[in-house]
From TrEMBL:
Segments forming domain Histidine kinase: 1-86
PROSITE patterns, alphabetized: HIS_KIN
Documented EC number(s): 2.7.13.3
Entry GO MF terms: ATP binding; protein histidine kinase activity
Organism lineage: Bacteria, Pseudomonadati, Pseudomonadota, Gammaproteobacteria, Alteromonadales
This protein's name: histidine kinase
Keywords: ATP-binding, Kinase, Nucleotide-binding, Transferase
Length: 91
C-alpha cells in the first residue's frame, strides 16, 4: 500500500491531499462516503463513522472543506482546505 500526503500553501489557505493506491471507492458510492453510519463493511464490525467524523472536524471545528475524488494512484484521494485566517483551535 502506498499513501501519498501533499501539503500546498496558497495565499489564503493550505491544501492537504492524502491519496493511496488501494481499491478506491466506486462511482456509485462516492457521494455517500461522508454520511454518518455509511460503510460497506458492516459485516466486519465497521460502524461507518470514520469519514463522517473527519468531515465534521474539518468543516465544523477547523472551518475548512474536504472532498473526495479517485486517486491517480488508483485508490482514494481526499483533499482538505484550511484557511490561514482561522483563529487557532484546540482540538
Amino acid at each position: 500500500m502506498v499513501v501519498k500526503v501533499t501539503l500546498n500553501e496558497f495565499e489564503d489557505y493550505y491544501s492537504v491531499t492524502v491519496e493511496d493506491n488501494g481499491v478506491g471507492i466506486s462511482s456509485e458510492e462516492q457521494h455517500k462516503v461522508f454520511n454518518p453510519f455509511y460503510t460497506l463493511a458492516r459485516h466486519k464490525g465497521h460502524v461507518g463513522l470514520g469519514l463522517n467524523i473527519v468531515f465534521n472536524l474539518v468543516s465544523q471545528v477547523l472551518g475548512g472543506t474536504i472532498s473526495y475524488q479517485p486517486s491517480s494512484l488508483g485508490g482514494a484521494n481526499f483533499r482538505f482546505t484550511l484557511s490561514k485566517t482561522r483563529e487557532e483551535v484546540d482540538v
